[in-house]
Amino acid sequence: MPYQQFDKVVVIIHGIIAIFGGIANALTQEEVRFIKFIYHVVVSAFTGIMAAFIMLHFTEPNYLTYAVSGSFGYAGKEGMEYILNFIKKSFQANIK
Predict the structure, then answer these.
(1) Is the dihedral of CA 45, 47, 51, 54 positive or negative?
(2) Cβ neighbours of residue 80 closer than 8 Å, sequence gap 6 or more
(3) Are 18 and 54 in contact (CB under 8 A)?
(4) pLDDT at 1
């Protein structure tokens, strides 16, 4: 598979949308503490960008990739666990 280079602006936009998803999730918590808020924002940005990389591997940037990035940003840690389970199942299916 050829090397695919992503536009930095597109990645930054996906990251910002993921951060907004994380902020939305953090603000829905019963108790919002500063350190937990920062934790949500960092994890959400990472998770959203990872989801964006997966989406961008299969398609060009469009509204769907932004929506997935924001959704996984909102999902945070649970979203990353979903991605990892998906990848694990994909590898297991290809091995058999």
Answers:
(1) positive
(2) 43, 46, 47, 50, 72
(3) no
(4) 44
Token look-up 């060009």 returns 60
Is 2 within the bounds of a domain? no
- What domain range includes position 28? 8-95
Local confidence pLDDT in tens for the 96 residues of the chain: 455 676 788 888 888 999 999 888 888 888 878 888 888 888 888 888 888 888 888 888 788 888 989 998 898 888 788 878 888 888 887 776
* Total number of domains in the chain: 1
Q: Tell me the CA distances in angstroms from 72 to 5, 17, 39, 61, 86, one per residue in order.
A: 22, 10, 15, 16, 14
d(Cα 65, Cα 15) in Å, to the nearest integer? Answer: 11
